[in-house]
């Protein structure tokens, strides 16, 4: 695997491959890699000629400086993991490399980005969309892979790619979960063992209510989670999904489950 820090070198290298007729599959991440990330990479490897991964903990999408400071950094382990799975390229830019404009230019979405996770995280999706656009333009991949765990993020990125006529196809991949049902997340590392057991109840409750949809499903699920000690930031139905953000101690977790509808 070849690691590249410089955006110009990255862009030149990716362009050389695409000009030679090779399809690049791109997986952008913030590192501390887990099985959720690896599922995206395996899919990209299976579908494209080359796998390109980026690791960049994007400061512009953190509205809470403490959250950014606490974000796990496992770069040595991540490089070993990527080498093991046979990634071809790793992009490791610094803030200065990716933001020569010091974040003067941004991508602002004016509707969905203010809802759900966007309500309590002002500026979060502007940071996400801005960095993802930069990464997609630099990579010029055939396809980029995103997880359905971050459902709202996926929808916003897909919408941006359509709005700006990007050449890269945006592909979504299902949520990968631990045996307990807890969705893999880099933030799970910050949970104590007791909190981790509690965290698994998020999926349990969402799944229960997703199987018996009614007008009050979201409200009832929120009440149940509050009763179990979660601080519920939101719990909402959207486009056939039950989506939630909760806090356990100081750790914020998100998850979503597709609502099952039975026809009589
Ligand atoms: P992150 O490093 O958290 O920015 O995530 C990088 C990509 O991995 C995003 O597209 C996430 O949606 C995806 N991802 C994170 N956790 C999971 C998971 N448990 N299952 C599937 N995809 C995931």
Quick structural overview:
The chain has 264 residues and is α/β, with parallel strands linked by helices. It is built from ten helices and nine strands. The protein has two domains: 2-173, Rossmann fold (3-Layer(aba) Sandwich), CATH 3.40.50.620; 186-258, 2-Layer Sandwich (Pantoate--beta-alanine Ligase, Chain: A,domain 2), CATH 3.30.1300.
Q: What is the CATH H-level superfamily of the largest domain?
A: HUPs
What's the order of the H and E elements?
Answer: EHEHEHHEHHHEHEHHEEE
* General shape: globular
Number of strands: 9
CATH architecture of the largest domain: 3-Layer(aba) Sandwich
Q: How far apart, in Å, are the first and last alpha carbons?
A: 53 Å
Structural class: alpha/beta
Q: CATH class of the largest domain, please?
A: Alpha Beta
Low confidence ranges: none
Number of helices: 10
Q: Overview of this structure, please?
A:
The mean pLDDT is 96. The termini are far apart. It contains 10 helices and 9 strands. The strands form 2 sheets. The chain has a 6-stranded parallel sheet, sandwiched between helices. The protein folds into 2 domains: 2-173, 3-Layer(aba) Sandwich (Rossmann fold), CATH 3.40.50; 186-258, Pantoate--beta-alanine Ligase, Chain: A,domain 2 (2-Layer Sandwich), CATH 3.30.1300.10. By secondary structure, it is of the alpha/beta class. A hairpin with a 2-residue loop joins strand 7 (231-238) and strand 8. The structure holds adenosine monophosphate. Residues 29-30, 36-37, 39-40, 146-147, 149-150, 173, 175-176, 183-186 line the site of adenosine monophosphate.
